[in-house]
Amino acid sequence: MAVNNETEERGEFGSSLGFIMAAAGSAVGLGNIWRFPYLVGENGGGAFVFVYIICVLFIALPLLLNEIALGRKSGKNPIGAIRETGGNKFWQLAGVLCVLVCFFVFSYYSVIAGWTVGYIITEIINVPVDFAEFVKTPLYVIPLTFLFILMTILIVLGGVSGGIEKASKFLMPVLFIIIIFIAGRAVTLEGAGAGIEYYLKPDFSKINPAVILQALGQAFFSMSVGWGLMITFGSYLPKKSNIVQSAGWIAGMDTSVALLGGLMVFPALFALLPGKDPAAGPALVFDVLPKVFAAMPGGHIVGALFFILLMVAALTSTISMLEVPVAYMIDDRKWGRKRATWTIGIAAMALSVPSALSQIPGTFFANLHINFFGNRLEGFFGIMDFVFGTFAVIVICLMLALYTGWASKISEYADELKLGAPGFKGPFRMGWMFFVKWICPIVIILLILNMVGVFGTAQAA
After folding, report:
1. Is there a contact between 22 and 16 (Cβ–Cβ < 8 Å)?
2. 179-222 pLDDT per residue, tens
3. Residue ranges per structural domain of the chain
4. Which one of 54, 119, 391, 392 is least enclosed by Cβ atoms within 10 Å?
5. Per CATH, the architecture of 2-451 is what?
6. Which residues, including other chains, have CB under 8 Å from residue 5's CB and lie 6 or more apart?
7. Termini Cα distance of the chain
8. From CA 94, how far away is CA 96, in angstroms rounded?
9. Which residue ranges run through the membrane (predicted)?
10. Could you tell me the pTM of the whole model?
11. Helix extents (H) in 158-208
């Protein structure tokens, strides 16, 4: 009877479609629709898009397969997965980092998601908002953040098939319908051609080490590798599932949303605000786009839809971020799902407050700063984003590739991928093992060395 209860607490995906939607949902998030367009704007337009697609295909996709295989082979959370497959305490640190990354990123990511909830309301009632003033008003931002975290908690409480799978099957199609509608509206605006050309016609002279670094960092961030999300979701997969096919769908859906995100932003920006610098940074979506919508006929409706889209994208990601520490508590601490979800959710609410307050100039949390190999990180939010949302994720990717590629028998993980995917043999199998053992670790080590300033000035991805 105890075994049945444990299985019920852990859960299992009811279908491959459910897994693909949930895993694609965890990958598709603010990284695709908020972060991707402003990085394109800051890194030379089409040149960045080209490098990003290469990074997804040859680095992020092999690592995605690696994590799902590790999860399904072990049937455990990130820490348990490494322990179950014979990893010692050192390698289990990668799993510990996964749980920490998901918890800490969930706390500050929910602040941005809270902004989207606020903008849905202001667009519906058609009241212009000054972004700089809005984020400096904790009376709005903190309750909106808490509301968003509560929504995430309620879905995760439903379990794997009853909560996460059911929500993802509904939310992902909604996300695609809205994004296709807005992108369709943007590309048909008069003058949109200049934006489309800027976005999709690469100027290869703009490709430099900094652009490659940013594209690689975005591929990790966007595809949700190095977070333990895919290990955890993989652990809920039955052995008959085709991991290789599912991973292809996840990568395809994730990249499609990112590319459509750019098609929403740049054609509209060039058509309606000619002369506006596309390199507007993180404020591009919240500051520039509402002005773009305001210039459209019926723009506040399009604006409301856009911010609903952003909220849905954020929600599909935070569901999985919360699930990783919850799965750890269920597996290793033998907590019930209800206790684990509420405890971690409320702790994330408390930790979200410093991130929200760090947007207010002059406050203690805004003035916090650290030096990372000469790279100055400012504000509680900025420090958290770099340490957990960027650097730790890249270190985890390296440790997992070295663990499965060198500390374990990589052929066992290739065998795991072949279960349910009989076509995964010959050059496909050899190619995947070669990339995980050699290419991915070398590229990630070069990325880390660049971040700490070995090749010149230290750069944050």
Report:
1. no
2. 898 889 889 989 999 999 999 999 999 998 888 888 988 898 88
3. 2-451
4. 54
5. Up-down Bundle (1.20)
6. none
7. 49
8. 5
9. 12-34, 46-69, 90-121, 141-162, 174-196, 216-237, 249-273, 293-319, 340-360, 380-403, 434-458
10. 0.91
11. 166-187, 193-200
